[in-house]
Amino acid sequence: MIEESVFIEFNRQMGNDIWLMGFRSEALASLAKPGQFLMIRIQGNSQDPLIRRPFSIHGIGEGNIILILYQTVGRFTSLLSLTRNHDQISVIGPLGKGFRLPGSKQGAVLVAGGMGLAPMYFLAQALPPDARRNAKLFIGFSTFQGAGLIDLIKGLGLQVSLATEDGSMGFTGTVTDLFEQAIDRDAPEEPVIYACGPHAMLKKIAQKAGRLNLTCYVSLESYMACGLGICLGCAIRAARNQDTEYYYVCKDGPVFSAEIIDWEAL
Ligand SMILES: Cc1cc2nc3c(=O)[nH]c(=O)nc-3n(C[C@H](O)[C@H](O)[C@H](O)COP(=O)(O)OP(=O)(O)OC[C@H]3O[C@@H](n4cnc5c(N)ncnc54)[C@H](O)[C@@H]3O)c2cc1C
Ligand code: FES
To answer: What is the longest distance spanned by two Cα atoms in the chain?
Structure first.
């Protein structure tokens, strides 16, 4: 784990309220694994907001560019969207435990709800070329966010299907519905499910994977004050059969095997 001050190389609007930011870091590019995250603070005269915010490492671009995909939801992300090339941010990471890649005979099925897309690009980047070509990605948004975002991930060569809840593009409905129909119809051999998105969506995906006896990894979100396992503010309940009562999303996750979580308590 390192703490670094870096200069923003670009910060582009990709959708209605979704932005893609890049900065150069050789150290992070060599250390980071898909599913890990960074704690970010904007540098400058203001310490506003005081607490760093967690963001998944979206991917690694050419020249050791670290990509962050984010949605403007509040104070920090709105300020982040106003930063320009050469502005400075401070990053701590890579943090947490990432995704376990599928075995050579297993197929990857990625399911992203909204900003759950953020860690999926890096996961797809890390798959061997054959596995990537056969991998399926299901993405869901409440409304279509623009072609740029989808084209970016399609550029990696995996099979992408889109759902929008308002029917503005692709399948009409939730990504969970789309996933459930597709996995019943044409699942790849020995699929491993990777899901990120709102907790209610993850619970449904985990339940479906459980019924089909499939390996399933979920990337969870939680409010994080420290991101380092110190404040204990990101505790979630472990499933009853585990040898601990709680897991901490920042240090035991954010990626968990779905069966070790108490989904009823989440
Ligand atoms: C491990 C991890 C990785 C993440 N990766 C990404 C990412 O790659 N891209 C991205 O856009 N976001 C990501 N998030 C969520 C991101 O951290 C929050 O959106 C951000 O902290 C919001 O800060 P804010 O000051 O803009 O909003 P705030 O003013 O803090 O909150 C605004 C609104 O967003 C909601 N909110 C805030 N934080 C969260 C959260 N963690 N989960 C759910 N709702 C929240 C609040 O309830 C409130 O309604 C991640 C969170 C975690 C824990
Ligand atoms: S965020 Fe502080 S312990 Fe996890």
So the answer is: 55
- Averaged pLDDT of the chain: 95
For the chain, how big is the Rg over CA atoms in Å?
A: 18
**CATH number for the domain running over 2-95:** 2.40.30.10
Side chain identity at residue 63, one-letter code: G
pLDDT band at 60 (very low <50, low <70, confident <90, very high): very high
In Å, how far from its chain's centre is CA 8? 21
**Helix, strand or coil, per DSSP, at residue 242:** coil
pTM: 0.96
Enumerate the domain spans of the chain.
Answer: 2-95, 107-219
Tell how strand 136-141 and strand 107-113 pair up.
parallel
What is the distance between the alpha carbons of residues 71 and 77, in angstroms, rounded to a whole number? 7
Q: Which fold has domain 107-219?
A: Rossmann fold (3.40.50)
Closest ligand 2 atom, residue 235 Cα: 4
Within 6 Å (CB) of ligand 1, which residues are found?
A: 37, 49, 53-56, 69-71, 73-77, 115, 118, 221-224, 254
CA distance 35 to 198: 16
